[in-house]
Amino acid sequence: MTSLLLKCFVLLAISLLLDAKNGSKSQPSACFCKLQGEVDDCSCKVENLDSLNNRKVYPVLKSLLQRDYFRYFKVNLIKPCPFWSDDSRCALKDCHVQSCTEDQVPEGLKGNKNEREPNKYSKEAQKEEPNCNEERKLGALDRTISAESMEAFKNWTQHDDKQETFCEIDDEYTPDCQYVDLLLNPERYTGYKGASPHRIWKSIYEENCFKPEKLVYGSKKSLAGSMEGLCLEQRAFYRLVSGLHTSINLHLCNEYLFPAKNLLSSPEFGPNTEEFIRRFDPKPTKGQGPQRLKNLYFTYLVELRALVKAAPYLEEEDFFTGNPEEDKDVKEGVKDFLEIIKSFPDHFDESKLFKGDPKVAEKLKTEFREHFRNISRIMDCVGCDKCKLWGKLQVQGMGTALKILFSGDRIGLESTVNAHHKQRFQLRRSEIVSLFNAFGRLSSSIQTIEKFRKLTS
């Protein structure tokens, strides 16, 4: 009996020591302490969005975004930063794509898919600034585009030129624009860290975002109660940006580069629970982490509502690629997707925004629009091509969602925009592609939260 008790005490002591060494298994669950109940400034519950997204939306949307119409995004990645001349990152100087017109792209231009990344991403290396070669390789774009796709793009452009346009999309027709295959360039860890990305986000939060008065980006000061000084529109803007920021960070945590386990293996991408805890646990973030995760759900709701409002318009879109069978499948897939999200009973209500005194509301809406326009311009200052690609795409997608929400004869849950009023409302191909892919990123992020919930439980 004495021997048995002694063994129990020894095992208990070992367990306590291991918990202390690993920071305790119960700690990571604190990341999810706010992920329940109603989304802030909305009536929808987090649990309902988890169920909708993970069971219905994510599987359908993931498949849809593999299609040619959505996988190719036309973007200008060499547009100069309008706010500062140099972000002091080697990637900005060396890791850019030499753009050319579609007719100039040679058939044999292929990315080197067999090149392996060097094993230089140890725990110690993550604490240091990555050297130029490491960052350049991780941040470089795979520019592989087949000759067949390049020929099809010409027909796509001719088709778009025949459509009435609602507004001009930045860079759409400049010779510096190029098509990028999103499937060959997934959003993941690139080694882009330190002063440069900090400067990007600091500029967004400090200069172009409505925020709590005393909150300084990077200070890690608690946000408890600090949102009370902001009106609904200002809170909405802040949560939109925070939700986007959270989504990007979740993808970096989920697609993190780990060093090779031995000399015969290669570095691999995968989920990093330590990085997730560092960014979202209450303790290292001074209480901000869980709220950041919840803001993701607000951003998701806003873009979800935009897709529903634009459903009549999108159902009339032909999703032209020049392949009749492919176009038919995409059209049917989009219709199935829209039916799923239209059936959701608790959407974001945009009519609650910009109410009250008309002059005050109009002034606030103008500030809202100008702030967001500046954020889209800041994306040209990102010093990593892959980061810039996904930053520009997701910001444009969010901008398209806001355009939809405040278009049409009226706003509110009963309002829609459709293809029968093209003189008053029009979406270009790049807007549709960015809208669906941006929402796809948010959908993937919510699914990723569930993954980390299981990994840290």
UniProtKB/TrEMBL annotation:
<keyword id="KW-0676">Redox-active center</keyword>
<keyword id="KW-0732">Signal</keyword>
<feature type="region of interest" description="Disordered">
    <location>
        <begin position="104"/>
        <end position="130"/>
    </location>
</feature>
<dbReference type="GO" id="GO:0005789">
    <property type="term" value="C:endoplasmic reticulum membrane"/>
</dbReference>
<feature type="compositionally biased region" description="Basic and acidic residues">
    <location>
        <begin position="110"/>
        <end position="130"/>
    </location>
</feature>
<feature type="binding site">
    <location>
        <position position="190"/>
    </location>
    <ligand>
        <name>FAD</name>
    </ligand>
</feature>
<dbReference type="GO" id="GO:0071949">
    <property type="term" value="F:FAD binding"/>
</dbReference>
<feature type="binding site">
    <location>
        <position position="188"/>
    </location>
    <ligand>
        <name>FAD</name>
    </ligand>
</feature>
<feature type="binding site">
    <location>
        <position position="245"/>
    </location>
    <ligand>
        <name>FAD</name>
    </ligand>
</feature>
<feature type="active site" description="Nucleophile">
    <location>
        <position position="384"/>
    </location>
</feature>
<feature type="binding site">
    <location>
        <position position="279"/>
    </location>
    <ligand>
        <name>FAD</name>
    </ligand>
</feature>
<dbReference type="GO" id="GO:0016972">
    <property type="term" value="F:thiol oxidase activity"/>
</dbReference>
<dbReference type="Pfam" id="PF04137">
    <property type="entry name" value="ERO1"/>
</dbReference>
<keyword id="KW-0256">Endoplasmic reticulum</keyword>
<dbReference type="InterPro" id="IPR007266">
    <property type="entry name" value="Ero1"/>
</dbReference>
<dbReference type="GO" id="GO:0034975">
    <property type="term" value="P:protein folding in endoplasmic reticulum"/>
</dbReference>
<keyword id="KW-0560">Oxidoreductase</keyword>
<dbReference type="InterPro" id="IPR037192">
    <property type="entry name" value="ERO1-like_sf"/>
</dbReference>
<keyword id="KW-0249">Electron transport</keyword>
<keyword id="KW-1015">Disulfide bond</keyword>
<keyword id="KW-0274">FAD</keyword>
<feature type="disulfide bond" description="Redox-active">
    <location>
        <begin position="384"/>
        <end position="387"/>
    </location>
</feature>
<feature type="signal peptide">
    <location>
        <begin position="1"/>
        <end position="20"/>
    </location>
</feature>
<feature type="disulfide bond">
    <location>
        <begin position="132"/>
        <end position="167"/>
    </location>
</feature>
<feature type="binding site">
    <location>
        <position position="201"/>
    </location>
    <ligand>
        <name>FAD</name>
    </ligand>
</feature>
<feature type="binding site">
    <location>
        <position position="242"/>
    </location>
    <ligand>
        <name>FAD</name>
    </ligand>
</feature>
<dbReference type="GO" id="GO:0015035">
    <property type="term" value="F:protein-disulfide reductase activity"/>
</dbReference>
<comment type="similarity">
    <text>Belongs to the EROs family.</text>
</comment>
<keyword id="KW-0813">Transport</keyword>
<keyword id="KW-0285">Flavoprotein</keyword>
<feature type="active site">
    <location>
        <position position="387"/>
    </location>
</feature>
<comment type="subunit">
    <text>May function both as a monomer and a homodimer.</text>
</comment>
<protein>
    <recommendedName>
        <fullName>ERO1-like protein beta</fullName>
    </recommendedName>
</protein>
<keyword id="KW-0472">Membrane</keyword>
<keyword id="KW-0325">Glycoprotein</keyword>
<feature type="disulfide bond" description="Redox-active">
    <location>
        <begin position="90"/>
        <end position="95"/>
    </location>
</feature>
